[in-house]
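Reminder to self: tokens first, then the designed residues, so the page reads top to bottom the way the pipeline ran.
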């Protein structure tokens, strides 16, 4: 038999035909199609206070496979606080988690390339300030300009609340940016800082052991109890150019939040991630993080937020309706 030699082009065509016949006959066609499916979309996500329960939705949701189900892979980056998160998103990171609402407004007015895509937390009862157990400071009026009171970073919700403490509770201590809650606790215990700030689970074990005591909680400020004090943000270019991806992120975010309050694995995963007992975390969730406060669609009391921010000299003036319409772009459920 005389061999038949094919040129390269004909050989490739024949190979593809034979491969197609093989896949169709062997039932492997579905495998071939799956292997050539469109890859998952990647989103870079910046999170300040990354160990807080209310900021865990991306991490826990990703571990549970919820974001993967929506065709997403999250690359998560920790920051020292909302101020750093704002800078990261303005510089090109896709999404920022747990950023102070008034800080976002102020950055937007100054030209930051950001948009609000979700509420994060309504109220301020989850943030508290504390002193060492042996501190002479017993009540807000005891804090004078000789003392220092912590907040995380400029523009964070803790920054805004400390300003409100001065106005509404008469706290005269000098505000100091100390970064995240864990190193702040170290400074307080060492006696280098008078009044620390924290959000659970940071400090809960020290409270139980009697090493520290609560000085004030955000919920001591009646004007802020119904305000959406933190939001999730996106880079404006990402939202414009990849809107469908952001919509899927919010779909997965809502689903992950529901899962975190209905599946026991959520607390188990959370405990493993931060190295704290499940019993402690369950108690913390019940006391500080009611599910309704974390609703992504509950953006409430915006006018009062802006009025307070102007009174506290955080904003020069309220945003206009057109500015709010451009800034706030929450994808519907």
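Designed residues (333 positions):
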């Amino acid at each position: 038999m005389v061999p038949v030699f094919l040129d390269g082009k004909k050989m490739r065509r024949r190979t593809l035909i034979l491969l197609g016949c093989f896949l169709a006959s062997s039932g492997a066609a579905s495998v071939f199609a799956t292997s050539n499916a469109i890859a998952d979309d990647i989103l870079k996500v910046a999170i300040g206070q990354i160990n807080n329960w209310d900021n865990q939705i991306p991490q826990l949701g990703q571990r549970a496979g919820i974001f993967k189900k929506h065709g997403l892979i999250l690359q998560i980056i920790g920051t020292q606080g909302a101020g750093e998160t704002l800078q990261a998103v303005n510089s090109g990171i896709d999404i920022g988690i747990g950023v102070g609402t008034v800080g976002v407004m102020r950055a937007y007015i100054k030209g930051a390339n950001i948009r609000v895509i979700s509420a994060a937390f309504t109220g301020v009862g989850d943030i508290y300030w504390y002193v060492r157990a042996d501190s002479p400071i017993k009540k807000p009026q005891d804090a004078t300009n000789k003392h220092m009171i912590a907040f995380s970073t400029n523009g964070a919700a803790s920054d805004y609340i400390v300003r409100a403490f001065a106005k509404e509770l008469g706290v005269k201590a000098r505000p100091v940016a100390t970064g995240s809650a864990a190193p702040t606790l170290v400074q307080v215990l060492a006696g280098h800082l008078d009044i620390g700030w924290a959000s659970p689970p940071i400090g809960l074990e020290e409270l139980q052991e009697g090493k520290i005591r609560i000085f004030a909680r955000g919920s001591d400020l009646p004007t802020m109890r119904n305000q959406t004090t933190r939001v999730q943000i996106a880079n404006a270019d990402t939202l414009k150019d990849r809107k469908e991806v952001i919509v899927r992120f919010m779909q997965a975010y809502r689903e992950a939040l529901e899962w975190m309050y209905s599946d026991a694995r959520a607390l188990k995963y959370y405990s493993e991630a931060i190295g704290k007992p499940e019993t402690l975390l369950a108690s913390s969730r019940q006391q500080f993080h009611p599910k309704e406060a974390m609703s992504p669609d509950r953006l409430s009391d915006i006018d009062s937020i802006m009025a307070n921010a102007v009174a506290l000299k955080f904003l020069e003036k309220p945003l206009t309706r057109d500015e709010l319409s451009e800034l706030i772009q929450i994808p519907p459920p």
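The CA atoms of residues 280 and 286 lie 10 Å apart.
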